Amino acid sequence: MKTHARVVVIGGGVVGCSVLYHLTKFGWSDVLLLERSELTSGSTWHAAGGFHTINGDTNMAALQGYTIRLYKELEEITGMSCGLHHVGGVTIADTQERMDMLKAERAKHRHMGLDTEILSPEEIAKIAPATNVDGILGGLYDPLDGHLDPSGTTHAYARAAKMGGAEIETHCMVKETNQLPDGTWEVVTDKGTVIAEHIVNAGGLWAREVGEMAGVYLPLHPMEHQYIVTDDIPLIYEADKEHPHVMDPAGESYLRQEGRGLCIGFYEQPCRPWAVDGTPWKFGHELLPDDFDKIEDSIEFAYKRFPALAEVGVKSVIHGPFTFAPDGNPLVGPVPGKKNYWSACGVMAGFSQGGGVGLTLAQWMIEGEPERDVFAMDVARFGKWITPGYTLPKVIENYQNRFSVVYPNEELPAARPMNTTPMYDIQKELGAVFGQQNGLEVANYFAEGDEPRYETPSFRRSNAFDATAREVKAVREAVGINEVQNFGKYDVKGPNARAWLNKIMAGRVPKIGRLSLTPMLAHSGRLIGDFTMSCLAEDHFQLTASYGAQDFHTRWFEQHEQDGVTVENISDRRTGFQIAGPNARKVLEAVTRADVSAEAFKFLDVKQITIGMSSCIVQRVSYTGDLGYEIYTDAMNQRALWNTLWIEGQKHGMKPFGMRAMMSLRLDKFFGSWLSEFSPDYTAGETGLDRFISFKKPDDFIGRAAAEKEKAEGSARTLVAYEVEAKDCDVHAYEPVWINGEVQGFCTSGGYSHYAQKSIAMALIPAEQAREGNEAEIEILGHMRKARQIVTPLFDADGARMRG
Ligand SMILES: Cc1cc2nc3c(=O)[nH]c(=O)nc-3n(C[C@H](O)[C@H](O)[C@H](O)COP(=O)(O)OP(=O)(O)OC[C@H]3O[C@@H](n4cnc5c(N)ncnc54)[C@H](O)[C@@H]3O)c2cc1C
């Protein structure tokens, strides 16, 4: 075994082998995979081998599409068989809500180039005759669905990697991973020590244990999972072609042909986590004991849906564990806080996602960034707050919801409340209905009187509609107060702080007492942040950005450290409120001795003043687009600050407002939001954030060359706003935009403007199509809705109120 390698990949399951292959594919051949037993010795060997493209996240779906298309390439490169069966698959719906969801998925697929189609019950019965279609409303057919041979596929990845120069050492157990002072990794195994520049944790079932070796906690957990294979079924073996996959969400099952019979697996409600306190090292090629009790109800349901199952016996039962992250997506990328330590774990659908995970990780390692927005599977999407105690109930919930309808406004209940601010009880008293963001309870809206304290999950306008309208009205006509805990906040200090900001941010760094908005760009020019930058002193700045991107941003800051500057994540230490609306200034004037008149405290000013008893940083800016102030203080002071603002606010018609109102208010001004309009999939030029880039500053900020090129050449697509003739359902995201009878764009977000009483969509469309008044159609839940491009903000179009 070699003693040095550029990369050591730990784990020879389908994911580790895919990473190894992709590293060689993109040019790194000095790569070594270490496997403690034979290849496929974790979850991989007992997988059912099914694959599909459908995923709620469009980028995940695209990577699943890549994975599936890769198998042919692997077969061609290696001459080995992956045992591919491209039989197609149908997800069936027996409720209107499920049918709505499938139609929404179908619509998204149009601009993703996926050829799915909605089938009637009769069509389902024809292509999938094992299905009893009584009570079925229809289904979504995906021709790319299929299954393969898990072991053959993993070995094909391994062979292709070896052909590219990789080495694989089996029966080689990694015992320790120690980072040396020069940043390289010492990988201690039972066959000797390897020094590696990078290590990849692809430890699958043992990823937690492998992570611990480096002091890394990876939020994932194994769950037991069972599928059964039946004896021969005449309906199946007498058919002239292979039976397609059938996903039956009501029965929480997936079914496919296996030889001359059928194979069916379940995501049962009485599910069971496995190896809660750690995966035993001796576990490997054994299965878990059959457990029919656990799936009794599921089987009973399946007998009705697929009557042929009841007529034959069970040939074999496969019961094994595999891992999930709290949201069911993989954990991929550079682990925050650990240089050159990469995660490729938590992959619950290795045969749908393994190729995409390998591709992403290899691009990230070799080129410095993946080619698309992979935040949905970025290991940095969970913060430092996450614990095994949180992960476990979330993983159970995720398993149980595997086939549930996913609503855009849904707030899942497990592991809550986790993090709360000092305002939690006060907000509850005021009727707050909470959501969770990055482990934090955030008020979505405030119910009043006998309104339910629970938002009904729905694709349509929900029961939060009236409360949201009330809160919007209060902001636009009086003053609203909203907690600003859910911003990521960073304190940047030191003699080189300004120089560092000039390099890391594309925008103009403000003078003392001023703030500016700025995009943060990757080298490729794509957006990796959308920041407010405030100058408190020549060597002291506050940055604010998305709360959920804390580890994502911190990782980037750490990767671009510079002497003479410290960056501290203070998101949970500095908190406060924003007040917004025409009476906001009156409230502020009454609670401070500082001069906050329009002349003394201008739009985009920042001041350090005392409010009531609290020492505060106040910024004159508001995402509501109204006259507004963001007021930050120490978390220990938050209640005192609240009392001061709230008591005075009552004289001026103050109401609390939540995230639902905020997202409606920002639509009035067409303000984009992080991960909707602004994400690593888009550039500043496409989304209009280029107006905040300072091309004049002399600094060679990251992404400058790409941004200049885009400026010179123009962007192919552009972000626009539409007024939509929606009925009871607004745009959420990714609905296709039809222009001149073809899909030419897609929505990034949307909603209802309570102020203007209009349904609004934001969308990316070809730049040459962007024109005021241009007509389009947006497909919402299977219905074509007329849309007209608008360019004048619905509120305060001349900015008089916001800046006045
Ligand atoms: C019953 C069942 C059915 C499934 N059906 C499907 C399906 O139809 N489709 C699908 O896509 N997925 C399915 N899965 C999930 C699939 O099995 C996993 O997504 C996939 O196997 C994950 O692969 P992996 O490489 O991440 O992990 P693993 O397969 O667990 O591989 C990890 C490897 O790392 C090695 N390793 C760990 N620690 C060390 C160490 N210290 N030193 C050296 N080596 C180490 C292990 O020996 C192991 O070989 C199913 C799972 C189960 C249990």
Blueprint of the fold:
Blueprint: E1 4-10, H1 14-25, E2 31-34, E3 50-51, H2 58-78, E4 89-93, H3 96-112, E5 117-119, H4 121-127, E6 138-142, E7 146-147, H5 150-163, E8 167-169, E9 174-179, E10 185-189, E11 192-201, H6 207-212, E12 221-230, H7 234-237, E13 245-248, E14 253-258, E15 261-266, H8 296-305, E16 314-324, E17 331-334, E18 341-345, H9 350-367, H10 388-400, H11 424-429, E19 432-437, E20 440-446, H12 465-477, E21 479-483, E22 487-493, H13 497-504, E23 515-521, E24 527-537, E25 540-546, H14 550-559, E26 566-569, E27 574-580, H15 584-591, E28 606-611, E29 614-619, E30 628-634, H16 638-649, E31 654-656, H17 659-668, H18 684-687, H19 704-713, E32 717-724, E33 736-739, E34 742-753, E35 758-766, E36 775-780, E37 783-790, H20 800-803
Parallel strand pairs: 1-2, 1-11, 2-8, 4-13, 11-18, 21-31
Antiparallel strand pairs: 3-7, 4-6, 5-6, 9-10, 10-11, 12-15, 12-16, 13-14, 14-15, 17-18, 19-20, 21-27, 22-25, 22-26, 23-24, 24-25, 27-30, 28-29, 29-30, 32-35, 32-37, 33-34, 33-36, 34-35, 36-37
Helix pairs in contact: 1-5, 1-9, 2-5, 2-9, 12-17, 15-16
